[in-house]
Write a structure and sequence with these properties.
It is a single chain. The protein has four helices and nine strands. The protein has 196 residues and is α+β, with helices and mostly antiparallel strands. The protein has a single domain, classed as Alpha-Beta Complex (Peptide Deformylase). The strands form three sheets. The chain has a five-stranded antiparallel beta sheet, sandwiched between helices. It has a two-stranded parallel ribbon with strand order 1-9. Strands 5-6 form a two-stranded antiparallel sheet. The chain is globular and about 40 Å long. The chain starts with a strand and ends in an 8-residue tail after the last strand. InterPro entries: Peptide_deformylase (IPR023635), Peptide_deformylase_sf (IPR036821).
């Protein structure tokens, strides 16, 4: 089932997500719905707060990046099949020199800005079967994970911009929060019950 994506301005996007228990109701259906929602919106990641749930759950599927001819073949091959569910995740280490990449967000349509992040992370998480993992990721996979991880901590990529950049995009952000934006996927705007 395709769920509406919560737009910028909704308080749920600024909440710290709560850990979820193994018996969280209908978790498998929720995860399936999140993948379907993300794919329909042509995203590479989606966090539970983006569908209105302040819990520590996010998914990533970096396959769209595998078509980027500028990336090394090895990374493209990895990205093509990198699809994971992260539950109650905790980034334990970030390494390397920060690098800029032009990021966007399904909750903030039509806004893209360069964000600086570390190139290598180590993350502890549970998969959809609640098996424990500790893994290290680099490059675009690490970046997508960091972006989605920020969501479960109540942080948006726009929070990482300079005050000048924030002022420059303030009008766009206000319009998004008021529903004045054209998107080709379902969205839920603050102070509106439902909208396509």
């Amino acid at each position: 089932m395709i769920l509406p994506i919560v737009a910028y301005g909704d308080p749920v996007l600024k909440k710290m997500g709560a850990d979820i228990p193994k018996d969280y109701p209908n978790l498998n259906a929720l995860i399936d719905n999140m993948y379907e929602t993300m794919e329909q919106a042509y995203g590479v990641g989606l966090a539970a707060p983006q569908i209105g749930l302040p819990i520590r759950l996010f998914i990533v599927d970096t396959a769209p990046f595998s078509e980027d001819e500028d990336l090394p073949e090895e990374e493209r091959t990895f990205l093509k099949s990198f699809r994971k569910t992260f539950i109650n995740a905790k980034i334990t280490q970030e390494e390397g020199d920060e690098w800029a990449f032009n990021e966007g967000c399904l909750s903030i349509p039509d806004v893209r800005e360069d964000v600086f992040r570390k190139p290598k992370i180590t993350i502890a998480y549970l998969d959809e079967d609640f098996n424990e993992h500790v893994e290290t990721f680099e490059g675009l996979a690490a970046r997508v994970i960091q972006h989605e991880y920020d969501h479960i901590d109540g942080v948006l990529f726009t929070d990482k911009l300079s005050s000048l950049k924030k002022r420059l995009i303030k009008g766009k952000l206000n319009n998004i929060s008021k529903g004045k934006v054209q998107v080709d996927y379902r969205m839920r705007f603050p102070n509106q019950k439902k909208r396509r």
